[in-house]
Fold:
Amino acid sequence: MSSSMAAAAAAAATSSAAACTGVKSSFLSPSPQQSSPSFLLEVGSVRPRQKPNSVVTCSLQTPSLLQLPKQRAPPQPPIPSPVVKPPKQSSTSSPSSSSPQDWNFLQRAASIALDVVESALVSHERTHPLPKTADPGVQIAGNFAPVPERPVARSLPVIGKIPECIRGVYVRNGANPLHEPVAGHHLFDGDGMIHAVRFSGGSVSYACRFTETQRLIQERGLGRPVFPKAIGELHGHSGIARLMLFYARSLFGLVDHRNGMGVANAGLVYFDGHLLAMSEDDLPYHVRVTRSGDLETVGRYDFAGQLDSPMIAHPKIDPASGEMFALSYDVVRKPYLKYFRFSKDVIYDKDKVARFGVLDKNASDASGIKWIEVPDCFCFHLWNAWEETETDEIVVIGSCMTPPDSIFNESEESLESVLSEIRLNLKTGKSTRRRIIAESEQINLEAGMVNRNLLGRKTRYAYLALAEPWPKVSGFAKVDLSTGEVRKYMYGEERYGGEPMFVPRSRDSEREDDGYVLAFVHDEKERSSELQIVNAVTLELEATVKLPSRVPYGFHGTFISSKDLERQA
Structure:
């Protein structure tokens, strides 16, 4: 199949599931020497901004509501929040709201009055116990607690030998609230902070920096949180009151929401020389990796004015064509769902059924989309998808969560994340779903990836976080997607990590698993963090980088090779 016939599956779950993008490929073997797939797969949310020579194509407009799952963190003794020093200024443009010292008499009076209203609202809220899903004492306790920024620490101690192919920078995103919450707070509400470990010239360095969002800049200037927290605060009548309070402050010019309200704390992708930090509530933010290994925010990235709506935090990049595929959703105004192709020339309802949309990835409109229902399916993350032409099916690999809203709402049911193979039959319009791992051996597998050189092509292995005890990660699993065989790598007693990052040794490797798995690991007893490098074939530890400060548990990351960094914008 020629690349001009390549297509992308936009899996837009219309009920309990999040919007996804399916992947269709014309090749079935896991050989790295494969051409561009016909379909692409995705879940999540974020917003982009980028430079002039990138072209964005939007083609899908269909009503669909995206959503995520739920479960709570076990209570644990909180670590005192550190004093967070203000991050250094970047080239991010200043918000148009004036600073407090520049306010006029009317603004000062309005600020005092609205602060009184907020104090009364907080006092009222504190008369009712917070659910665990919005209790900061639960959500940001232990190693989920925030840390201050850290400038570059060089020549870090290394145990073992770092493989020759590990040359570049490993970056991981996460939520790290700048200010102590005054009311409800969910883990996903925190400000975005990127942790970077750079490998260069035989030396290893580490730095962590906030992504300088418009929200963070304004709240830092005011010295306290004022933007509403979508998950932790916006519930019931008090949530409506908080929104009214925020827009009243905006009306008087005390805050400015016109340049975005996002936290950029979820995903990271490196596309067309740009490292983009993403979340569900804004455009992406462009962040540069400096020559010294530090991080600096350039600003919101809208692809030279071509993108004016949020973009999901988990876009997918075709390894052959270099194109990026993503979705954007809006629950207020039409179109509710958009599908994007970026070229380098470039509320949960239990009665509804999730649907996957399959669309030619080069489509110019939505007329050719095929919708296929997948009952009892909520995929928080999708790992890969490919086309099997002999059966006219799209095969989707993802982790299906039950209950589907368990990350955001308390539930009596225990959370299960089931690694699943979903088959979408394009001829019959029917779907099937099967467990990849036997039910008797069920383990919760969440954040992870496949060999990204084979994204959109048939893969044998997936590297996934062992999300046990939820929401901590006790190790990672290498899963054979054909046989269901699971090999585990455990971090050890009272040691937990996050998303495993697979770094292939070479694009030309004959073995799909020829490479290394990188993971941040935190020792809760010693309260120290490190970066482990594990051989993906043998699952033996190759090297450990001792980090100078604690790295909180976070979300998603990526690896940028030294060669790609040379072409950074």
In short: The longest helix spans residues 105-125. Residues 399 and 419 are 4 Å apart (CA to CA). Residues 1-95 have pLDDT under 50 and may be disordered.
